[in-house]
Amino acid sequence: MQNNPHIQEQLEKWVEENRGHVVLGTTAQYIPALGNEDPAQLGICMIDEEGNYYAAGDTEKEFTLQSVSKALSFIAVCCHYGLDYVLERVDVEPTGEAFNSIIPFEIHRPNKPFNPFINAGAITVSALLPGQTPQKKFQFLLEFLEKLVGHPLEMDQEVYDSEWQTSHRNRALAYYLKEANFLDIEVEEALDIYISQCAIKINVKDLALIGLIIGYDGYNPITKERHFSDDIAQVVKVLMVTCGMYNSSGNFAAHVGIPAKSGVSGGILAAVPPKLHSQTYAFRAGAGIGVYGPAIDVQGNSAAGTMMLKQISKEWDLSIF
Ligand code: GLU
Q1: How far is it, in rounded angstroms, from Cα 104 to Cα 102?
Q2: What is the DSSP letter of 114?
Q3: Is 67 a catalytic residue?
Q4: CB 197 within 8 A of CB 145
Q5: Contact 75/236 with Cβ under 8 angstroms?
Q6: Is the Cβ atom of 162 under 6 angstroms away from ligand 1?
Q7: Does residue 66's CB lie within 6 angstroms of at least one atom of ligand 1?
Q8: Which of 12, 72, 157, 275 has its CA 20 to 30 A from that of 288?
Q9: Element (H, E) at 298
Q10: Of these residues, 54, 160, 219, 246, which one is catalytic?
């Protein structure tokens, strides 16, 4: 099937309609290199199961994965060790606290981090990546992602340096993890891997493709390649729904209803599984969505990006609920 011009027109219209919502957010100031981005940007890419891409708005821009990487390192680690091994070391429970909070540790003294999408869980997962050195662990993740997107990827050194110099809270969190015996490697090594993975450069097209693969339970319907198993995909989608959009995950599930993971760079990775009983003409066989809008709201999600996804999901009946 060819690209559907109607879908393309609609997407372009909805980007322009939602662009005004960028004023509801600001760029992430706590990582200086992200704070300098132009907050007015908004772009989206959607891909269907036949490989048709639809892109509208600021789609050429490269940005860093930030927290979106948490979903991907979790998948990579599960692929290597199996789900059971990883779930013995990190749980799948939402916290209701900020993503970088130390409170759950102090109050609950859990026997493992609550989930891989809060920083404590993500740093734990990064440290688990296979490899004898931080460089090899990071390389493992990078190669896993390169296989998903089908081309080389690289890290943004400026964003890495900027976060490395200012990540006092993550350093504090990592010391908690070390004290609780959740880290088998040194604090500075775990932080290095985590901050490196957050600084991997990506664009909305790559995010859309990864979203499609997650929506298809680890299978790429375009290349007919399986990248990870159904049971890993199932847990990742649950995490995306329950914890993927920070402390707006409940609202996002209610009003958008698409498994998604966002990051403070303003990226959103969304996975629309097939929904064959849907009445709509668009994306009944599922889709991957990549969004970029660096003006983020107080929760940490792209302000205009989430509003746009709400509209798209409603118009095209993409909610899984
Ligand atoms: N590197 C960021 C941090 O740890 C990622 C945060 C995010 O995107 O939620 O603060």
Answers
A1: 6
A2: S
A3: yes
A4: no
A5: yes
A6: no
A7: yes
A8: 157
A9: none
A10: 246
Q: Is the CB of 263 under 6 A from ligand 1?
A: yes
> 282: part of which helix (H) or strand (E)?
none
Contact present, 318 and 44 (Cβ < 8 Å): no
Task: Evaluate whether 113 touches 121 at the Cβ level (below 8 Å).
Answer: yes
The CA 246 to ligand 1 mean position distance, Å, reads 11
Beta-bridge partners for 271: 288
Q: Is the CB of 170 under 6 A from ligand 1?
A: yes
How far is Cα 308 from Cα 124, in angstroms, rounded to an integer? 33
Q: Which of 34, 119, 269 to mutate to test the pocket of ligand 1 (most atoms within 8 A of CB)?
A: 119
Q: Spot the catalytic one: 22, 54, 69, 70.
A: 70
Please give the chain's pLDDT, 321 residues, in tens.
Answer: 568 889 999 999 999 999 999 999 999 999 999 999 999 999 999 999 999 999 999 999 999 999 999 999 999 999 999 999 999 999 999 988 888 888 877 788 888 999 999 999 999 999 999 999 999 999 999 999 999 999 999 999 999 999 999 999 999 999 999 999 999 999 999 999 999 999 999 999 999 999 999 999 999 999 999 999 999 999 999 999 999 999 999 999 999 999 999 999 999 999 999 997 877 789 999 999 999 999 999 999 999 999 999 999 999 999 999
Dump the DSSP string for 173-230: HHHHHHHTT--SS-HHHHHHHHHHHHTBEE-HHHHHHHHHHHHTTTEETTTTEE-S-H
How far apart are alpha carbons 51 and 307 in whole angstroms?
A: 25
Radius of gyration for the chain, computed over Cα atoms and rounded to the nearest angstrom: 18
Give the atom of ligand 1 at the shortest distance from the alpha carbon of 68. 8
